[in-house]
Amino acid sequence: MAKDNLLIIGSTGWIGTYITDQILKSKDLFGRIAIFTSLGTAETKAQLFEGFKEQGVEVIVGDILKLGDLERAFEGIDVVISAVGRNIIAEQISWIPLLTRSPNIKRFFPSEYGTDIEYGPSSVHEKPHQQKLKVRAALAKSEGFEYTYVVTGPFAYGFLARMEKLPEIGSFDVAKKKATVLGDGRGQVSLTTEPDVGKLVVKALQHPEATKNRALKVNSFTTTPLEIVAEFEKQTGGEKWSVDYVPLEKLRELEEKAWETGNGTGFTLRRIWAEGGTLYEKRDNGLIDGEETDSLEDAVRVAIAKQTGHEKL
Ligand SMILES: NC(=O)c1ccc[n+]([C@@H]2O[C@H](COP(=O)([O-])OP(=O)(O)OC[C@H]3O[C@@H](n4cnc5c(N)ncnc54)[C@H](OP(=O)(O)O)[C@@H]3O)[C@@H](O)[C@H]2O)c1
């Protein structure tokens, strides 16, 4: 059977980097691997693109807001994987007619990689979900290709970071041995490490039937903020960390204020995660042979390396 030709859009963004890295690690599974990027990014990240080209990646430079540029990039492509940033999530709706009329395209992965935006009855009202919900509504009516929503919950390295300027949304500070946790710190949360997001996308690509026209709810592990603190303590010499608690009512107040004065996305997502919005009866890793994932121990090791400068953030 012919191998699928892939196009990645948003390949140098935060999560796009990890997705691209894992696709390249498995490149023998695929045919052509192409990347669509803007001229600005092609210039500022020229070295990165040179590295991609050395690995046989086709770099297509264009304007993501010009449908003609995208349509040219879609030529000969079987699967489009988008990891575009939040600002342009809704733009993906305008790609649907192109995806439909592209003769080869059979699967689209829109930019998701987050909280389940259809988790429960209140999800439909959550402000940060609105653009992705519109994309899903448009895709549900689309024809001529299939789609997969890769739902990963919070990224582990992001969740375990030190939030110097805003510890109230949850923070783990290795240098100060100090954590700020939401609620009583015992609420469960399911996290996916950034490399696992990439690996699980590759697994989803390998399992087209199991991932057809659905949200694929995957994660690396489920834990609690206090278990995370305990793991940090273990990996930083065994000494107790100091822990501050932010009651959920306080978080909701901060969230409201943030929306009044600007964009409260970060607060809303943290509140949803703290309320248990990443927990499912059953995760879907088993559907795609994706049970082998990073552990809390692995994620904390990387989080420490990032904060102590032993690995780039
Ligand atoms: N679960 C979590 O904890 C979590 C955290 C963060 C993000 N996410 C989700 O992951 C997805 C990708 O987010 P991200 O933070 O990785 O994205 P990002 O770093 O902000 O950007 C991704 C890429 O989108 C492309 N892009 C082109 N024009 C753009 C524009 N006008 N505005 C924004 N991006 C533009 C760029 O591609 P080029 O580099 O090729 O120019 C950019 O590198 C989103 O759906 C987001 O909601 C989830």
UniProtKB/TrEMBL annotation:
InterPro entries hit by this protein: NAD(P)-bd_dom_sf, NmrA-like, NmrA/Isoflavone_reductase-like
GO function term, MF aspect, one: oxidoreductase activity
Keyword NADP: yes
Ranges where the NmrA-like domain occurs: 3-253
Pfam families found in the cross-reference section: NmrA
Keywords linked to the UniProt accession: NADP, Oxidoreductase
NADP listed as a keyword: yes
Lineage: superkingdom: Eukaryota
Name of the featured protein: NAD(P)-binding protein
Provenance organism: Mollisia scopiformis
